[in-house]
Fold this sequence. Notes:
Blueprint: H1 14-34, E1 43-47, H2 53-58, E2 67-72, H3 75-88, E3 93-97, E4 110-116, H4 125-134, E5 136-147, H5 149-159, H6 167-175, H7 181-190, E6 194-208, H8 215-225, H9 233-243, E7 247-260
Helix pairs in contact: 4-7, 5-6
Amino acid sequence: MSDDAGRRPRQPGRSASAAIAEYERFFVDALREAIDRIPRPLTALNVACGSGDATLELYPHLPPGTRLIAVDDPRDAINRFHKTLKSAGRAPIYIRKENLERLPFGDSAFDLVWTSLATYRFPSKRLMLRQMLRVLRSPGQLVVATPTRETVVEMTRIFAPWLADDSEPRAMINDTTLASADEWQSEMSRTGAQDVRLTTTVHPIRIHTPLENHPVFMHHLLPMWLSDAHPEREAILRKLNRALDARFELPLHVAVVSGHK
């Protein structure tokens, strides 16, 4: 394989969008199963909504008349969400760019708060959970659907034999901000949530090389393992592209933790 395997990923096309949608739908289904069945309209908050595809997928499963506020920090993702929402014409969804470390809402403002997918971006799990519980009114529900640390362990197990420095993959596990399923459950209990429930599952993701052309790997899985700022990121991708089979499966470990105020 040529040395240009570390090039920038091409822009997602139709098949790439379909692959990302399938990945996000898995989290939507997990959230839908965990959210309480309440017949009345809710006031809901989606934290770290990203570009909003998963948000729009989940919204029809909420009670009719639900008012939803979706917040995130990256401007490019918020802009994409605005464009998608405009074409979808879903008036009860309001998108806001906000600092996720300090949610700008009053206490007890929402009946339902959830986050999913991008929880690896949270600098402090406990701080975020406290913020989300603060804006939740009793007996509202908080739901977190998140990839867990075990996913990074699996990635390191698969990739480590092909990387020259055996100490580097171990450091990648230590550096990840992902928590384990048990840690999420423990943190939610410690922050004051009641009736905390945990379910875990493993979802196989089919990966193909070159890795840069696999949208789910590049946009969702790789950031859990290597940050954009990692000095050896491009070199590691080149090594893996040369060594790995054309297609392989990566086990995605997911935890869904829910609690009430």
